[in-house]
Amino acid sequence: MFERSVELITGPYRSGKTMWLLEELVRHSREQPLATRPVLLTVPSHRYKGLLEKQLAQILRRSGAPGLCAVKILPFYDLCHLILRQAGVNFHLLADGLRPAVLLKAIKQVESMGKLNTFASIANFAGTHAQMLELIDELMRAALSPREVAATLSRAASSESRYQELAAIYQAYWDELEKLNVYDERKLAFKVREILPQWAKAASPPALLAVDGFDRLSPLQLSVLSSLARHCERTLITFDYVSQGPKLDEYTWKQKSINGLLAFAEGGLTLKETQFEQSVPEVKSELISTLDRQLEMEEVARQVKTCLVQGVEPSEIVVVTRSLQSYLPAVKLAFERAAIPYFPDEAIPIATLPLIKYVRRLLFLPLSKFKRVEVIRSLRSAFSNHEWLGLDKEAVDRLDRLSLDSVVVEESDWLEFIKQPGLTAESQALQRFFTLLQGEVVQKAASLSSHVAHVEDVIDALLRLPSDDEYSNPVIAWEEHQGLVELRKVLADLIREEELLLESYGSELYTYKQFFTRLEQAFENSNFRRRAGGDKFVTVCGADLVANRRFRVVIIAGLVEGDFPRRLERPGLLSRDEVRKWGSLGIDIENPRQHDSFEFSLYRSLLERAVDKVLLSYPHFESSNEELVPSFFLVGSSEQSKALPECLPPRLAALQRPVSVEELAMARLWYKGAGSVSDYLQKTLETNLPQDYAEEAERLLRRLQEPLAIVEARTSSESRGSNRKLACGDFSDLVALGLLKIDMPGAWSPSALSTYGRCPFQYWVSYVLKQEELEEPTAGLDIRLKGEVYHKALELFYAGLKERGLRLNSAEQTFLFSFFEECIAAALNWVQTERKVKLDEFWEFERKDIAFRLRRFLKEEMNSAIKDNTGFEPVFFERPFGGEIIDAALGNRSAEVILQRPETLAPGSVKELRLRGRIDRIDADGQGRLRVVDYKSGSSPIRNDDILAGRELQMPIYSFAASCDRELVSYGKVTAGLYLSISKGAGIGKVDFEDKEVDLLQVSRETIFDFVEKIAKGQFPVAPSKREVCQKCDHSAVCRIAEFGAEED
């Protein structure tokens, strides 16, 4: 026994220090069963406490001796709580979620004193608060009170430096805690240091104090433990550290902690240091590399399955990545396919839960003015309580359809919509829905408790948990219920915040928007950990969360630069540069985990946890095709770099050692085509196999029959090589056999033919299937309606000039501008009366924007007319062609346009075709020449290449139409074309039909017939003629461009 002694037991990782310590505690407890002074063991976390409790139980079972073992295991801050309670100190602990509110009060206090300068502009941002709290935590861990920080800075920093500001905020935060009579965790430790002498007199200090499991000890923890050790008969401290030898580099990041422990002797304590030696078992090691992370996890799952088959218990296998987040989808897919019981030990952010997303959407509806799409999404949610609303699925579908037809955009439209006859039940449901969500607190500022009560009302009425249904997934059910628990914890924190601040600051009111912002921030900062359902599973976790014990098999994945080792740079106020600056001012807040050797030490520590086998792996590419670099831990020297393995062929091992029928089927598809998968599964069913294996094969065959048929068709020899793009959209065989008929229009429009030229698949979806992107109703004018206004205004203007016999380059400008304003007003009035338009508070701004663009366009037109020496003047506007009725009373029709098949083309089924459309404007020069003008809302330039490729066929078709129009022929022949951008106010392309180098009309005629022939044959490949085509396509959701690829233009 060592009176007032401290025994420091050091040694390498897993050298038996913890087991020796636990056995010593058991021995001490059994030797003194009636001792009144307790035995305390302090650890870094509740997680580590649970691990030690299991190990302690194993020791007691092994010993077989009856009796009690009175050892109290407490995380460090729980130990501080115990000491304060035993000393009779009354304290209230400040929850972490309430710290930002206290910090905000502190910042306002500093600002009121005129000391906030550098951070004044960003002081109210949530990110700033998080950074400042992290800095305050580091200053507290360094055992530096605000006064000590201020005193040190007064000697080294100017009074106007930002460090002085931060020190003032730290002091104000400390003062606010005292004003509110609350403590955060670290301030409690300061209080413990202060009252330890009184505690030793009033309470019974531990007979034995043990410290275990800390990978580093902060100065604050060291000061508390040093003071506490003076009142204990004996103190045992275990710490991973070696002072010499080849492994010294792995422990240099712990130097500050070991120096602090050795300093116990300077405080008058007797310090005895004992070194443990490590017995390292011989471990088999293997290194593999794969193409990407998904294939990497498939190989890891294969290795795990092999170990399980060989008799290794699941709890004896751990799969580690530096950060699990980037691997979770791959882990889920690979391990579930292999039927491996696994536990992803990772926190779940509640903001990612569907339940929380649903609640957030509901609460945001008043702020979004009840946008139609958000209301319908909320009502369609599986969490929506239709019973309370008095709705069912069919009623929600009806509301969706009718509200879309009624052009419902937001709240005011809903109020009109629910007045419609025949919607009694739905109207009542919507009325209840809106009334609940538009509670009193939404309309005016209210206290936090009032806002929370409103949220509770919404949850109680509109939330149901689908997991409560019969046959629900128990894991998902637990996550949903836990998410609801965490949601109510967030709400409870807001209530506690109000109660905390009420006495000192009085009641504070928040608008609904301010409250919602606070709630969203709380959601983002809240998470919970999954629960392990027993110990019959393989643990998959991040490197920081691996249990501090040995495993038979350790698998470390993701060994690439940037992942492991992780980049150590911290952002903001605790970046390396900032920490060094604090150090130069005499304040050391460097976190040992930011030391250069920490990542290597962590890596070595993981390797040494293995008893039988270590598997290391790394991918070559990200899913985004970004190339990855193997970790420095693998290529630290040129010899190591040469020893890196070749990348495993994708899924080759699955053919030889499959983990499931599904994986084998996938591998056969990869290497041998779709036909081999069906054959293999069929043969599997015909052989005598275990029942569960045969059932799995039968289920898989049923599920894959149709997809396999499609894949086989796409990968057949006829679909490869130059014809590979026809694998999606080629119906020519079906058309030839008479099994499919393509409906051909009676007359072809320029836009339809140009669409086929841009992408045949786009034509198939738009004009054959007649599918349009479902556009949500919006207030104001969309692009299409704006285009109609532009066309209408210009049509009225130029037609008016023609009626008056005026020319653009000679008429009086005052009259032109005045008349143009009348035309703009008439066009805007026309769109409001003739089209379904929902006007909102921004309509006046939109009117002004349209008028501005049209005025700018007119000015450019006038300047061009003055400079233009060609003599072209507008003569016809919105000229139709294709035989449509122009005047029913007189029986007038537009000119019919019939194209004959060019003799230059090989014989085909299409001998002639009709065209229809409308020419925006036609100019004549009075000398027998015509110019067709096409107005464009966009501003992208249009070139001859676009015409030759068939992407822009309007101008050639307009020329064909003019040649068939007798009235136009009387004016002359089309010799040119002009594209005018209204939004840009300038020309964006010209066409010369008299160009001797290329006959645009002949090429266009051939192109049109070629397109129509292909359409008739059913050829609609995914083949965009230009990259930009995909960027403006509405059908990306059903297009397989990523699968089939697109060639450069």
Structural class: alpha/beta
CATH level 1 name of the largest domain: Alpha Beta
Classify the oligomer.
single chain
- CATH architecture descriptor of the largest domain: 3-Layer(aba) Sandwich
Q: What strand line-up does the widest sheet have?
A: 3-2-4-5-1-6
Percent strand: 5-15%
Mean pLDDT: 85
Short description:
GO terms for molecular function: ATP binding; DNA binding; exonuclease activity; helicase activity. 49% of the residues lie in helices and 12% in strands.
Explain what this protein looks like in three dimensions:
With 1049 residues, the chain is of the alpha/beta class. The chain folds into 8 domains: 5-91 and 188-275, P-loop containing nucleotide triphosphate hydrolases (Rossmann fold, 3-Layer(aba) Sandwich); 96-182; 284-324 and 537-642, Rossmann fold, CATH 3.40.50.300; 349-353 and 439-528, no CATH class; 367-437, no CATH class; 652-715, no CATH class; 742-771 and 872-902 and 910-1023, Lambda Exonuclease, Chain A, CATH 3.90.320; 781-801 and 812-838 and 842-870, no CATH class. 49% of the residues lie in helices and 12% in strands. The protein contains 41 helices and 23 strands. Strand 16 (885-887) and strand 17 (892-893) form a beta hairpin. Helix 34 crosses helix 35.
